[in-house]
Design brief:
Elements: H1 4-16, H2 19-36, H3 43-57, H4 63-85, E1 90-92, E2 97-99, H5 102-111, H6 126-133, H7 153-164, H8 172-176
Helix pairs in contact: 2-3, 2-6, 3-4, 4-6
Length: 178
Amino acid sequence: MKSTIQAEDEAEDRLIWPPPHAHQLLILLEAFVQKTHGAIPNIKDFKVMAEKLLSPCAKRYRPIRVKSKYHRMRIIYGKFKKLINHTGFRWNFDNNTPLCDTDVWDDYCKANPGVNKFKYVGLPDYEMHKNVFEKSNATGGLGYSSANPPCDVDEEADIENRFLHPDNGQSDDDEEAF
């Protein structure tokens, strides 16, 4: 169950950042990450984003507000990623939500505050969040999220090959030279 402070913070966030505005920020963040090859934005970058938000949002955001929203989005993505990587849940790929018994969900929510909202809604714009925040929320090289669709035979063979032969960066010619 949410604390009163947590509920007030989320309500204030929705007032300041309505979903269309948050989506516009994600678009800008995704473009920034692609342009800078995964760099984390600094205050100058947030200032540029604040200026670019003025036209589509018809609202002027201060750079510090943009920075704060970025960090809240990163935290929310981290919570959602932890949820999708949690074993014991089945996954509804249509609406990006977990499927489990109520008591299992309640126990998970007690251990992980702030995830209750994902039960029926999932994370809007999950792929965009993933593109923006994945490098700052790394997993092992063989990690495979339960939110991804099942592997096909070729993908599974590739994963198994990477597991069995982690140093497969050498070509066949290099191996013969030794």
